[in-house]
């Protein structure tokens, strides 16, 4: 980092405004194009079919890049979080759906002479029992009956009969729900093959089987195979069921999700709109299924910068959920959270604050005062309050004291959020350490962190460093508004300590594998904190606040160099992924 760049940092006249104005702006393309948590370490929260996302926003200021992030529901239930992609593919077939698929097979064979013997009778009994247990979530017991049903189908109907395909599908669906993909995939493939041979490649039963197979590929992030299966299923359903059938719309929505995950938001948006149109024309435009699709469409609109349209859609979602589930259901409050975040991006700060306060009150009552969702809401409220304070500073008709009080309110909320995140982080560390110790003792060797452990650790660590980073910014604002040089110096030193603590957590998380610190969302926060600390050091180099012996200017140069290195490395990984 050269002297000219450092000079821009030191001479910035926008310190007070740019820190919070960085909350809004265009998304950083180098990170946006990379592999997100939703595809590597899923953390996007789901609440009864309402899906939220992390909105990353950036701003280019005269003293260097500043990253400050808004959370939109990323800190959801407990520790393990799932994206919509995983929710879509992991959603089980209901008992009714399984019965429907069995009935499709039987209806197609009505004109033929079906076998009737003790094996076929037992097949029906075992299938019904397995289906009932499956619907109750008793998967281990259901597995036994589905295995028996498959055996009886082969004995009673013959190895090539479609009833065998139906039994393969039921057992495969169970394995898919248990994430045993190595068992599920061959059974789904066998089901498709048997149905094609017995009923023809364009039979609707083949379409259902292909849809289920695609879900397995989607869960494994094999998007090309998932897309191929969904496209073929869609073609069959259009021909056999018609272009206005709800099952056609269902596969269309799943295909849209695959396209979105492949970066094709334009086509994904069109497919979701068509899917919603079919539901609305069928009289179920206000169903949970429709709300789920509207929520995904709203997310795509936000990421595409169509904020006004997203706001309208999110208000519709909120209205539907308030009618269906009541104003204080957690699903409704998640919709409130999403709308508030969009309003914040549109600079409608007063209404955003009101909605976030509503979220906070309900979550504190329904969950607990130390729940991770409460911490995330406090963080978001603090961000809005910081933006409001920035506007007060920019408005010369407002008093400095009014702005200072707003920053102090934001500081208080961030400190509460930090305490909650620290508690959750320590609990997550303890739980993972205990599990690893038990596994290592059992296997007699060290065990590396698996995806489940990483998913447990990411949300609390991300919440903690994000709140620390934001607190550093707010304290820097308060240093600018301090009443005396001594108070300003104390605040500046405090901001430096906070930012260094944030970097320490991300530099060397205690007992954590390198996989964790390479999560893109955590890397973004790391780069953001590097820039904030570098700007602070350059600005205060003459105040003697640096804790190291080397000059503040040299430290700032090293920090910015590290930030540039991380960005370059990330951009290279993105390019490599695109090439593959």
TrEMBL record:
Keyword Secreted attached: no
Record's keyword annotation contains Coiled coil: yes
PANTHER family: TETRATRICOPEPTIDE REPEAT (TPR)-LIKE SUPERFAMILY PROTEIN
UniProt entry keywords in alphabetical sequence: Coiled coil, TPR repeat
Positions annotated as TPR repeat: 123-156, 207-240
Gene3D superfamilies: Tetratricopeptide repeat domain (1.25.40.10)
InterPro entries: TPR-like_helical_dom_sf (IPR011990), TPR_rpt (IPR019734)
Coiled coil (UniProt feature): 393-420
Organism lineage string: Eukaryota, Viridiplantae, Streptophyta, Embryophyta, Bryophyta
Protein name: Kinesin light chain
PROSITE patterns according to UniProt: TPR (PS50005)
SUPFAM superfamilies: TPR-like
